[in-house]
Amino acid sequence: MHPLLGLSLGNFRNFRSTPPSRSNRRRSRIRIRAMNSLELCLVVQLSLAFGMAGLFWPDKLMPLFDVLMFPWAASYRAIRANSIAVIGLALLLLVRLLTGVR
After folding, report:
1. What's the mean pLDDT when you consider all of the chain?
2. Inter-residue contact 81 to 35 (CB < 8 Å)
3. Does residue 25 form part of some domain?
4. Rounded Cα–Cα distance for residues 52 and 33 (Å)
5. What DSSP assignment string belongs to the chain?
6. Which residues of the chain have pLDDT under 50?
7. Which of 1, 18, 28, 49 is the most exposed, having the fewest neighbouring CB atoms within 10 Å of its CB?
8. Contact 86, 51 (CB under 8 A)
């Protein structure tokens, strides 16, 4: 208790002792943006991995393509075409990731 005013110093707890920092808001926005692009990074990596695997080892991916392309038989030409298309998709997604388009 203050001797002259008769007030307790604990009554002023409703006011902030330090002003709010704007740098924390910027950091949280950067973290949110990084977490949003994490999914896109994962898609880019997976599509690039499957595209390269289809070009290097089409024999090992033949059973998978037989299931995915059920009514039609999978061929090496189809696997190669899909692998090139997936690599193109990975490059497009990487450009989107680097430019920051939402």
Report:
1. 76
2. no
3. no
4. 29
5. --TTT---GGGGTTS-SSPPPSHHHHHHHHHHHHHHHHHHHHHHHHHHHHHHHHHH-HHHHHHHHHHHTTTS---HHHHHHHHHHHHHHHHHHHHHHHHT--
6. none
7. 18
8. yes
Amino acid (one-letter) located at 76: Y
d(CA 84, CA 64): 17
Q: What pLDDT does residue 87 have?
A: 92
Structural domain span for residue 85: 41-102
Angle between helices 23-56 and 58-68 in degrees, nearest 10: 100
Q: Is residue 5 part of a domain?
A: no
| Structural domain includes residue 80 | yes
Amino acid 97 reads: L
Q: Dihedral angle at the C-alpha atoms of 48, 51, 54, 55, nearest 10 degrees?
A: -100
Query: 77 is written with which tokens?
Result: 């030409």
Tokens representing residue 41 in the block: 């990074």
Domain total of the chain:
1
